[in-house]
Structure formats: structure tokens, C-alpha cells
Amino acid sequence: MPVSWLTDLPRTFGVLLALTGIAGLPLAATAQQQQDQQRRQTQPQKPPAKPRQPAAGTPKPAAPPVAAKTEALPPSQVGIGTLAKHAFMVDPQTSTVLLFKDADVAMPPSSMSKMMTIYILFEELAAGRLKLDTRFRVSERARNMGGSRMFLELGSEVSVEDLIKGIIVLSGNDACVVVAEALSGTEESFADRMTKRGRELGMTRTVFKNSSGWPAEGQYTTARDLAVLSWHTIDDYPQYYRYYADMNWTYNNIRQENRNRLLRTTPGTDGLKTGHTEEGGYGQATSAVRDGRRLILVVNGLNSMAERAQETSRLMEWGYRESTNTTVFRAGDTVVEAPVWLGAQDKVPLVVTKPVQITAPAGQTVTPRVVARFEGPLAAPIAKGTKVGTAAVTLPDGRVIEYPLETGVAVPRMGVVGRMTTMVQHYLFGWLS
């Protein structure tokens, strides 16, 4: 009889964990929610009471300030109505979409394209191919760029750090061309690199034609794709993301303010980038973090800088006010214990390496379903941190989010006597189990 089965006994384990009162329903519109809303809208409402007539001689009260009614705004497919033609809000920690309005419809990227130029610069810095004090020369093409500029001088050399600030804070089209030519030879080649890198990040509906977002035929993106780029920038390069929070900068004796007004007006805002074209209107990719919770919002198609600032701030406040995150497991928490074969201990804790969180409407509690999936028993010896399976969290809307599971401690192998005893017991009595 072969003996390999004594040390190799794989079985699929699925451990269901019921967690009551610590979960959340993502704010995606479910069919049941839509039906309930339609019923409320079609039910007759009581007419408002007639106002009493003021007594003679009583002065009329001052009219309250006019505020936009949410129900009067153009509706979104998910979330509240908005003046923006395109809108997408996501909680990146839980992948929960809070707001969706034509977020997969093509639109001009405008200066929000510059986030990809900056991303590639960050990538080069992190890889060690560039340093912040590396200097690039300004070409005639770069110096002659129109629109928002850093006011670079022909033939001058500019540091990478100054170019980063010039692109992020000043939205310099000239700075973008300098970067493109330095890294790829021509702006056209750099735009191809931007598009390719974007696809690798998950920007499946984006084509770049230049480094700055200057209007060009065949150049397009979506609100969702720009949110993907925003999250990769924040998550991949936290050591450089801080530049997006700079409120102003002076270069060549010219002081300019960051066009992202939310840095001054909306608590927690730390990026990212505004944009504007005649075709696409005013847009902005925004991110903020409050009490450890981050939201990302992308809007486009607004009518003015003032409307962009007001609408973006209103939507961010709504996102934080109307939804909350609940932690199901903290990083390092044990989800389940797995059986161990021929180990010094018969079980090993399986832990999550990052927090498992659920997004829910504020004040609402629901029950998630968590299933730990792994192949077991696990054969000793086992090193700490060995990836062995996943924790699948099923949300009430049917979405499943998977988190990696790894061993929380090391488990050495049994001694020779222990292994022999276990093998004999399994050989003689294993059929009883």
C-alpha cells in the first residue's frame, strides 16, 4: 500500500461564520429598494396645511435662502441626484459604490489626464530610475503650450519635484510636455505609454492622446476609470501622494493657487485634480479621509468652477453623512482555526492581513455571511504568514468580497515518535472517523 496518503490528505473546508450586528449593505440600488421607493412615490400624500394669515401690521418674515432640492436634481442610477453629467463615488476599502451616474459613459478627461502623467512620474521615482532632483530640459514645444502653465523658460532645466508641483498645483500643460518628452522622446509615445499603463491598472475605457488632457480627437475616459487611477495613486505611492494636498505654489516669481477648492473648504480633502474643457465642462477627481475612512469622488460636466466646488463638496458631505463603515475583522484577527496534520499542535489560526470592512447606510445594521475556504488539514511544518485560502464575505445584495487568509503562527512538525504514533492511529482507526 502506498504511504503518500499519510502525509497528503487534502480536503476542502468551507467554514461558515455567522456575524450578527456587525455588517453593512452597500448603497447599490437593489430591486427591492427601487420597488419600495416607487411605491412611496405613487402613494397619495396629504395636502399641506394652509398657512395662517398674519395679523394686520405684522412685518413679513425674511425669505429663507434658496437651497437646491435634492429631489429636483437630475437623478443618478445609484445614490442621490446631481448636477454633474457624470459622477462616481466609491469607498475603496470595501469596493462599495455609493454614487453612480453615467460613470461608464465616455467623456473628455481634460486636465484630470495629468493624474496619469503624475502616476508614471511616481512610478519612475519609486523604481529608482528618477530622483526628485533629476532635471529635464524645456523644449520649444513645451514652452509654447497654451492654457494653464508653469511659465517655463525655453532651454531651462527643471527638477522633477518642481515639475510634480507644477503639474498638480498649477496644472501646467508646459510641465506635462517636458515630462513626456524626457521619459518617452515624444508626447505621442508617452500618450501610448499612458494608455497602456492605464489598461494594466484597470482603466478599460480610457485612451490618452497627450500628457496634459488638451482636447484631442479620440481621447476619452470615464468617471469610473478616473476613480481607479485615483485609488492606485493613493494606494501605490503614499510617499508621494502628499503633493496633491499643496494649496498653492510659487514658481518663477508667480504664485498660483491650487484649483481644488475642497482642500480649503471640505474637511479631510487631500487631493486630487480638477479639469475643464469646452466640450466636457468642469470636472474633478476628489478624495478625502475622515476617521480613517476614505472616499473617492469623480464628477464631470458641470457648468462653472463655482458649481464644481459646491457640488463636489455637497456630494462628499452626503457620502460621509449617509453611510458608515463597520469593521468585521481587524488586521491580524483570527477568522477560523484550521486542522494541522503531523504538527506540534493540532490547529493553526488563520488570520486576515488587512481589515475586513462593510459599508452600510448610516444607522442600518445587517448580517454578513463569512465563509473561510482552504484546503485542509494543513501539513506541518507550517511557516507563519503562509497563504492558505480566502475569507469570502457575502453581502446582502449578493456581492462577494474575498480577503486572503494566512497562518497566524508557525507550526513545527511532530517528532519522529509522534509522527509514527499518529500514522499508526490513522491507519488503524481512521476509517472510524
Describe it for me?
The chain has 433 residues and is of the alpha+beta class. The longest helix is centred in the last third of the chain and has 18 residues, at 305-322. Helix 2 (114-126) runs parallel beside helix 7 (223-236). A seven-stranded mixed sheet has the order 1-15-17-18-13-12-16, with no helix packed on it. A five-stranded antiparallel sheet has the order 3-2-10-9-8, sandwiched between helices. A two-stranded antiparallel ribbon has the order 4-5. The chain has eleven helices and 18 strands. The chain folds into two domains: 4-26 and 328-432, Peptidoglycan synthesis regulatory factor (PBP3), Domain 2 (Sandwich), CATH 2.60.410; 86-302, DD-peptidase/beta-lactamase superfamily (Beta-lactamase), CATH 3.40.710.10. The chain has helices spanning 31-42, 114-126, 140-143, 160-168, 173-184, 187-201, 223-236, 238-241, 262-265, 305-322, 416-429, and strands spanning 11-18, 86-91, 96-101, 135-137, 157-159, 248-251, 254-257, 269-277, 281-290, 293-302, 323-329, 334-341, 347-352, 356-361, 369-376, 378-379, 387-394, 400-407. A hairpin with a 5-residue loop joins strand 12 (334-341) and strand 13.
